[in-house]
Amino acid sequence: MFAFAKPALATPADRLIAAARWRWYETAFWLGTLLVLFAFPGYLQLASQIAIVGLFALSLDLLMGYAGIISLGHAAFFGFGAYVAGIIAKYGWGEPLSGMVIAGLSAGLLGLIVSPIITRLHGIALLMVTMGLCVLLFEAANRAVWLTGGDDGLQGVEIWPIFGTFTFDLLGRTAYLYALIVLFLMFLVARRIVHSPFGLSLQAMRDNPRRAPAIGTDMGERVRIVYTISAAMAGVAGALIAQTTQFVALEVLSFQRSAEIMIILILGGTGRLFGGLIGAAVFMIARDQLATSYPQYWYLGIGALLVAVVMFARGGVMGGFDRLVRWWRARAGAGR
Amino acid sequence: MFIKRTNAGRAAALAILGLLSATGVAPAQEPLKIGLILPYSGPFADLAAQMDYGVQVYVKQHGDIVAGRKIEILKRDTGGPNPDIAKRLAQELIVRDKVDLITGVLFTPNAMAIAPVVTEAKKPFVIMNAATSVITTRSPYIVRLSFTLPQVVSPLGGWAAKNGIKKVYTLVSDYGPGHDSEIFFKKAFTEAGGQIVGEVRVPLRNPDFTPYVQRIKDIKPDAVFVFLPSGEQPVTLLKSAVEKGLLADGIRLIGSGDLTEDGVLEGMGDPALGVITSGHYSYAHESPENAAFIKAFEATFPNGPRPNLTAIGAYDGMAVIYAAIKAQNGKLDADQTIDFLKTYKAMSPRGPIEIDPETRDIVQTIYIRKVERKAGKLVNVEFESYPKVKDPGK
């Protein structure tokens, strides 16, 4: 987004290359995530859950923030991935990496199967259908007690150590590093997609869905591809939650999970890659701190936070900072 | 310039986040710390409040200093049956807050998720509610002070068969405790000569009882055996039963104590009169211990709910924790605590209780009760008791 503040470059290709350049603050952010290991050793369980939820939010950001496809049922893929990873681990194959890949591919396949419906819908209808899909999966998992354990949750999930050496320890060091590395790799993928001609055509589709096809964008195809990628990414996030907690509850498919991830993404800022990650961190740290201090009334604090962000920082936390900086710059300019 | 300043802002934001998460606690002394995990927020907050009150009443009665050590209770919220959150909270309580013991836990999935954590960390885990039979087998550090469904419903099966109920239809919630109660009621009832004429498992979330009630009415059993989680659902079921004329047809309602749980019993009104349940605790239990408990409860929370079976589980949970600390002169060593609790015996407000050394599960008197109106209040009046019932589920 910073690229737009600069004078327009000669060709779209130049512009894409400029936008895709790795920036120092990105390096700082990722180095900072490593610092958590040493700075807050007691918070690694929370940190690993933030990384997982951040990945889930990132997958939704590709869909909502970049392609403009609103989904109120993204937990369908998250939960599907979680159940796939959990079930294969329960029935004898506890190797985490391959389990995660299988879960991601399965969720992606599910996304591919559903995507033709998605291409035909917009707005409220899209909200309803995505939500309906999630409810369908929830009920299916609820009824298939023999496979999923229903309301009792999937018990007996045993995950082997990563590479046969790194066990999932009580402190959460392995869980955090595992989740963080997967998140980083997925971030690279998302970043590559966003800064590609394909990514640019998604944004064109989002910004002007009438004009995009007029200049030759095959919207149906774009939607199918991005929906499949996003579903696979959400499935990977689901697999991570199943593997790090070694348990799958029906709640992974709940409507609340779908709604919450949307809130997290809006809180952080849509269409910014980092938005989902920042949103997940802000939401979950605020929740953790508030819930520890006021176990009964912490929802009040979360509500106030959401209202404040929507009122004072449109575009989420990231958008708020952008505006703050712009205001600061304008003031500095006026005082000169 | 623009880019640099933006990044400075972003860095500042990250720093603020960092500070926010660094506000840990630094204790001056070394109190004994107890982690209390309950669903304080969300749809089950009422039951969590009952349990929290039970804990508070015990602490108020017995002080927060035991054998010279101050007791600090750290409360954590799971928001409902969320095993991933419950597991993380248990890990954090142990790793970050250095608690000596974990307790609370309303839901079976949460208890199941916490079990491997306490096994690995070697911390005692006192379960105050979660009632699926299998839980105590999941860790050698678990002790349960509530009840199990097989324990509660088996006596009812025997009682029903001997008291003129020959044909029963069972209606239970489709999850662990529901399956447990269906299987063990059926077993006890058929062994005593009864006959099951039909069974149904209803969804745990928002079931509509009308079609089930209609079907039962057509089959005309002597009674319907019901297990539903305590709270709103029994009220809804009773409403449907009245509307469809099930009770008018002389079909009786029997079930586990959850059906006429004290917290909502008053709200059920007169149709609840005559419902027979089996349970381990009744507000109307007549004993000096229960009178003292209720007096303390009502004095502490004059506008609070009537204490129910979850409150008593929490109250007794605190009682065993205090007893274990006293027995170790102000310590809470995991293995010693469990060894001590294996031989625990006491007179609780619910009646005599003890811990089975084999299973670390509670052994207690199960009462058959009937809903009656006494001094203007609807209560479960106990009229038959089965002493020292062990969990038959293991």
Draw up the topology in text:
The complex is a heterodimer of chains A (336) and B (394).
Chain A: H1 12-20, H2 24-39, H3 44-66, H4 75-90, H5 96-118, H6 123-143, H7 145-148, H8 173-194, H9 197-207, H10 211-214, H11 219-245, H12 255-268, H13 274-293, H14 298-312, H15 316-335
Helix pairs in contact in A: 2-8, 3-8, 3-11, 3-12, 3-13, 4-5, 4-6, 4-11, 5-11, 8-11, 9-11, 12-13, 12-15, 13-14
Chain B: H1 2-21, E1 32-38, H2 45-62, E2 65-66, E3 69-77, H3 83-95, E4 101-104, H4 108-121, E5 125-127, E6 142-144, H5 149-162, E7 167-173, H6 176-191, E8 195-202, H7 210-219, E9 223-227, H8 232-243, E10 252-256, H9 262-268, E11 276-279, H10 288-300, H11 309-327, H12 334-342, E12 345-348, E13 351-355, E14 362-374, E15 377-389
Helix pairs in contact in B: 2-10, 2-11, 3-4, 5-6, 8-9, 11-12
Quick recap:
The complex is a heterodimer of chains A (336) and B (394). By secondary structure, chain A is mostly helical.
